[in-house]
């Protein structure tokens, strides 16, 4: 039976990792200090009125958010993949958004399930054309094809059907997404036991809430049940704030920008400590009279990560479809 305080099992399975971790630990004193520093800081949710985000009606918007988050992973590399759009160059997530909007404006039917199911590698390469090649291009081809097939075969081409099936429950929708769309099934193993993260499935639900302004297909009654979104940027911020402490050998690997294999103990520990670092900070803020949901604390930290000093420890390098 699911824990009503942890319905997705993310907190309980990642806690086991944190308790056994050999390479990463959470500094409770730094959590308290960070909470004191952030207690009055305003939360800036993602801006869905941003010029790089796209909208063209209820059904198309739901499908667009699905496509956006199906491909929202792994942008790092040297040199960085960049996209030019309307006279500006973008990298990271914003390069993804720019590439998708550019394609949609050119008439590429990215919200059509049949088109996605049959999309070719050349078509995907054209959509993401820019400076250099987007990392994991072949994986993105397979994921877009999978997304199209599932949409077509299970939901008559309309992601809104999956959303409506969830009955205004963010938790139910995360479960549906992870079950029906395998590329969102973000589960690792540590000491032979499953560890649930569901990063892209959870952020997809959060993005629907933002894009629809908390109404219609973005109306969820249990958003507070979502956890942090365990990626590579938030743990970098947590480390910079002193909340995450790394064993010397791991810190050295990160400083050298050495690759951490997906599913390795070090990588799973970093992600698990990210979940619990954010959760500990959420609880510390609540004790100071600032009740926030975990995803809102995640927003605070992600925004802070956009202006880290040049000497901050680099984020961990892992080639993965999950973040």
Core attributes:
14 helices; two-stranded antiparallel ribbon; globular; 323 residues; mainly alpha
What's the number of extended β-strand segments?
Answer: 6
Distance between the termini: 28 Å
Number of helices: 14
Whole-number mean pLDDT: 96
N-to-C order of helices and strands: HEHHEEHHHHHHEEHHEHHH
Q: Quote the beta fraction.
A: 5-15%
Percent range of helical residues: 40-55%
Strand order of the largest sheet: 1-6
Give the biggest sheet.
2 strands, antiparallel
Low-confidence segments: none
What is Rg?
19 Å
- What's the shape? globular
Structure characterization notes:
This protein is mainly alpha-helical. It is 50% helix and 7% strand. It is built from 14 helices and six strands. The protein has helices at residues 10-20, 28-38, 58-70, 92-105, 113-117, 121-127, 137-155, 159-165, 170-180, 199-211, 233-240, 248-255, 265-287, 294-304, and strands spanning 24-26, 82-85, 88-91, 187-190, 193-196, 244-246. The strands form three sheets. A two-stranded antiparallel sheet has the order 1-6. A hairpin with a 2-residue loop joins strand 4 and strand 5.
Secondary-structure map:
Elements: H1 10-20, E1 24-26, H2 28-38, H3 58-70, E2 82-85, E3 88-91, H4 92-105, H5 113-117, H6 121-127, H7 137-155, H8 159-165, H9 170-180, E4 187-190, E5 193-196, H10 199-211, H11 233-240, E6 244-246, H12 248-255, H13 265-287, H14 294-304
Antiparallel strand pairs: 1-6, 2-3, 4-5
Helix pairs in contact: 1-13, 2-13, 3-10, 9-10, 11-14
């Amino acid at each position: 039976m699911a824990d009503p305080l942890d319905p997705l099992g993310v907190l309980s399975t990642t806690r086991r990792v944190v308790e056994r971790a050999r390479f990463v630990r959470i500094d409770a004193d730094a959590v308290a200090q960070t909470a004191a520093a952030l207690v009055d800081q305003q939360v800036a949710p993602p801006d869905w009125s941003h010029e790089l985000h796209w909208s063209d009606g209820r059904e198309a918007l739901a499908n667009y958010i699905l496509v956006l988050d199906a491909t929202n992973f792994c942008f790092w590399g040297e040199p960085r993949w960049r996209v030019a759009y309307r006279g500006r160059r973008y990298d990271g997530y914003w390069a993804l958004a720019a590439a998708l909007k550019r394609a949609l404006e050119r008439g590429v039917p990215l919200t059509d399930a049949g088109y996605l199911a049959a999309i070719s590698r050349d078509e995907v390469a054209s959509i993401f054309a820019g400076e250099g090649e987007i990392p994991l291009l072949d994986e993105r081809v397979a994921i877009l094809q999978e997304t199209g097939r599932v949409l077509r075969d299970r939901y008559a081409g309309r992601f809104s059907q999956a959303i409506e099936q969830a009955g205004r429950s963010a938790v139910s929708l995360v479960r549906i997404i992870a079950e029906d769309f395998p590329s969102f099934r973000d589960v690792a193993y540590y000491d032979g036991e499953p560890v649930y993260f569901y990063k892209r499935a959870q952020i997809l639900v959060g993005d629907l809430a933002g894009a629809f302004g908390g109404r219609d297909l973005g109306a969820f009654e249990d958003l507070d049940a979502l956890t942090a979104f365990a990626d590579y940027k938030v743990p970098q911020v947590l480390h910079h704030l002193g909340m995450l402490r790394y064993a010397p050998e791991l810190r050295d690997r990160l400083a050298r920008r050495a690759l951490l294999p997906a599913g390795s103990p070090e990588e799973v520990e970093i992600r698990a400590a990210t979940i619990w670092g954010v959760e500990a900070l959420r609880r510390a803020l609540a004790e100071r009279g600032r009740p926030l949901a975990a995803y809102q604390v995640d927003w605070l930290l992600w925004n802070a990560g956009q202006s880290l000093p040049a000497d901050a420890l680099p984020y961990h390098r892992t080639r993965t479809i999950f973040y």
